[in-house]
Write a structure and sequence with these properties.
about 150 residues, alpha+beta, 7-stranded antiparallel β-sheet, about 20% helix
């Protein structure tokens, strides 16, 4: 079994036209879930109210307690495509920006977050994920029986 890929990168949360906040985002890829990538954001950047009992928004992992990272899960292919051309439908959109930057827009009922990444960081992370599971070979790593068991609880 392959080890998951994890990388922490610097990003900017865009607050307005002239304001942004630096934050560290942990990117992760697990061969047990070969079609998805995860982005974990520090809890202090949550759009959510600070009570721990609320459900996670679309694209977010449920069961988050106060103080835990906010984790968004979406298709690895979406991140790859968004490095070159605007991509995404629904809660997650990715698009290239000027100066070797990539914008990731995350939409939840509480609001929308726009996060700017250095494209080089995202490309390096995706390259490392492809060393573990090459694009087009994700189906070889899917465990349908396990996924069904998890779904049925």
């Amino acid at each position: 079994m392959h080890t998951p890929v994890e990388e922490t990168v610097q990003a900017r949360l865009i607050l307005s036209t002239h304001r942004s906040a630096r934050l560290r985002v942990t990117l992760s890829y697990c061969p047990d879930d070969p079609l998805a990538v995860r982005m974990a954001f520090p809890a202090e950047f949550s759009l959510d109210e600070p009570d721990a009992g609320r459900d996670a928004g679309p694209g977010q992992d449920a069961g988050r307690d106060a103080g835990q990272d906010i984790v968004w899960v979406f298709a690895r292919q979406l991140l790859t495509a968004g490095l070159e051309l605007p991509a995404g439908v629904g809660d997650v959109h990715v698009r290239p920006a000027a100066g070797r930057r990539t914008m990731v827009e995350l939409r939840a009922p509480e609001g929308t977050a726009l996060v700017q990444f250095d494209s080089t960081d995202l490309r390096r992370f995706l390259w490392r994920s492809r060393l573990v599971v090459p694009e087009g070979e994700e189906h070889l790593h899917l465990d349908a029986d396990r996924a069904l068991a998890e779904l049925l609880g």
